[in-house]
Amino acid sequence: MTYTESGKAKEVRILALDVGEKRIGVAVSDPLGLTAQGVEVLERKGWESDLTRLLEIARQYGVQEILVGLPRHLDGQLAAQAEEILKLAHSLGEALGVPVTPCDERLSTKEAERVLIAADISRRRRRRVVDKMAAVLILQAYLDQTRKARCPE
């Protein structure tokens, strides 16, 4: 949560993306930046189509920041597709005039799978929502981390 000079909470919506080869998981924060909600799983149809749909979503929610998960190997090195993911995110950020924040998304899909299995979601349905859940987990971790940095216990 961000605050104005007068001490009031400032509304800031963040759009989070979990970009894969076939799908893009999309999540947004609530206006106060406390919780993450899944928006949709975008089936990838090509650069222009993906960018157009992401722009629609970002404008619909009035986002002021884009958080993009970057795939890394367990040793910390960026995976091969990271450059393409950053290119998409930066194009989106430039079109909206908002900053892009890259973050480590290692194991987010695996964690999303665990959460969905624990919730007894069928394998078929998991396949349709796992990317959205991964985006939610990436965003919620970011929100929790930034809140903790601003408000240490």
Describe the structure.
The structure is a single chain. The protein has one domain: Nucleotidyltransferase, domain 5 (2-Layer Sandwich). The chain has helices at residues 47-61, 82-96, 108-118, 123-150; strands at 2-3, 9-10, 14-19, 23-29, 36-43, 65-70, 100-104. The protein is α/β, with parallel strands linked by helices. The protein has 4 helices and 7 strands. Helix 1 crosses helix 2. A hairpin with a 5-residue loop joins strand 1 and strand 2. It holds the Pfam family RuvX. InterPro entries: RNaseH-like_sf, YqgF, YqgF/RNaseH-like_dom, YqgF/RNaseH-like_dom_sf. GO terms for molecular function: hydrolase activity, acting on ester bonds; nuclease activity.
Task: Reconstruct the topology from this structure.
Elements: E1 2-3, E2 9-10, E3 14-19, E4 23-29, E5 36-43, H1 47-61, E6 65-70, H2 82-96, E7 100-104, H3 108-118, H4 123-150
Parallel strand pairs: 3-6, 6-7
Antiparallel strand pairs: 1-2, 3-4, 4-5
GO molecular function: hydrolase activity, acting on ester bonds; nuclease activity
Keywords: Cytoplasm, Hydrolase, Nuclease, Ribosome biogenesis
Subcellular location: Cytoplasm
